[in-house]
Amino acid sequence: MVTPIPPDPTAEPAPMPPAPLSQQGLSRRRFTRAGAVASGVLLTLHGQPGMAAEVCTTASGSLSGGLQSFRGAKPVCSGRSPGYWKNSSWPGGCDKSMPFSRVFACDARNYKSYGSVSLSAILVPKSFDKFGIGRHLVACWLNVKGGLSTFQTERQLQAIWNEYQASGFYTPTAGVRWDGGRIAEYLQSTFD
Amino acid sequence: MTQLASLSPAQLRAALAGPGLTLRTGRFATRLHTGIASVADSLHLLYADYPLLDDTAFADFHLQLTRPLTPRRWIKPQVTLLYDGRSLFRPLPLDQAFPMFEWGLNWCISSRANRYLIVHAAVVEKNGRAAILPAPPGSGKSTLCAALVGRGGWRLLSDELTLLRLDDGMLVPLPRPISLKNGSIDVIRAYVPDATLSRPVTDTTKGTVAHMKAPRASVARAADTALPGWVVFPRYEAGAPLTAQPQARADTFMELAANCFNYSLLAAEGFDALAAVVDAAPGWRLTYGVLDEALAFFDSLAGA
């Protein structure tokens, strides 16, 4: 149930009464007051195509039965986690000892942390790897290389890293900003 | 109004192979041509109670199921679905011709009927109010839907496509055969012994698929809309006791939106329509291991 918000006695009187809300406006207000937190999330419902939540769990994806469009193959959504890649062999051409910074360029601030470890070393949780972003990015990168996530690309993952490294955020689509926690949540959502 | 049952299997085959037939399912009329016998026979089994329209009637969708004339037709015969005479999908093994018709019609509605907000969810009604069951594949949604309408006395509106009318928020029925997969085929055979099921088709991308005939009473009431009453997110878990948790409306909204085909397309209209559903229909998260218990829970909702 929505509880009405009592008037604030300290507030200045409004110079003009607001125009009455339409029926639609009322329903919108009723709902958004009930779920103010969720309404901020509404924007993320249709992020850029290529997000796992969009590609792998769309209603149309689960409905289409056995129909396969001529327009490209169905996406593969069977990404593996960092824990899996820590203990398993890597896709051809991926070198466990390659520096992390060779795939995800590191600036001066990360020179001694991310810049000093290999791709396989970062799969083991590190104190500097806040939210496990490095760990999850490497797992996603291996998923792309191994054909386990066909909706992501190496460049897309690098774009996430570059923007996060520079600003602490990633902008999946205009007007939406993901902090480190939300980025990690997205990356993890691509693991099967 | 002629019903499909008025044709013998041989007449139905001949009509489909010749001029074609226009079949009415709820709000939609589909013109179908096919010379494939298995499609005609499955239609005869599962669509007997549906109205046939005359050849001049308007059809929303024009579908053809044909056999591509490639050399492989001798070794591995295939079937192609044509929409408005065009091939949009890869051919499938001939054995999957009838499921391909069902999938194709779902695709037509979910990608074309944008005057409705369309949710990927089963929807069933009792005492005038409807329960909407959105769920990811594999959560037991269709099994539960088949049990509710086959044994629980609920009316089938749809097992896959919930159509919400934008101007008044009513749910528009689309009663069609219920698609059952793999283990749920035998579960429903045992649980609803008098159900009519099509021959299971193996090796589809979804595994083994069979369709259960929609109850005659549900088909007869295809014009009666229903009010949204509840949104229930079901999850089947073998051996689990029944748990039903009320869900916050914001969460219900988000999950419904994520299960919509055209939420983004309808923009503000879609938001308002979903907000109205969430305002009217409390959300529940249901885990069940026994169908009897799940049906009892639904009856407690409906006050039956």
UniProtKB/TrEMBL annotation, chain A:
This is Twin-arginine translocation signal domain-containing protein. Residues 1-27 are annotated as: Disordered. Residues 1-20 have a biased composition (Pro residues). It comes from the Bacteria. InterPro entries: TAT_signal.
TrEMBL record, chain B:
Keywords: Kinase, Transferase. GO terms for molecular function: kinase activity. It comes from the Bacteria. Signal peptide: none annotated. This is HPr kinase. It comes from Pseudoduganella plicata.
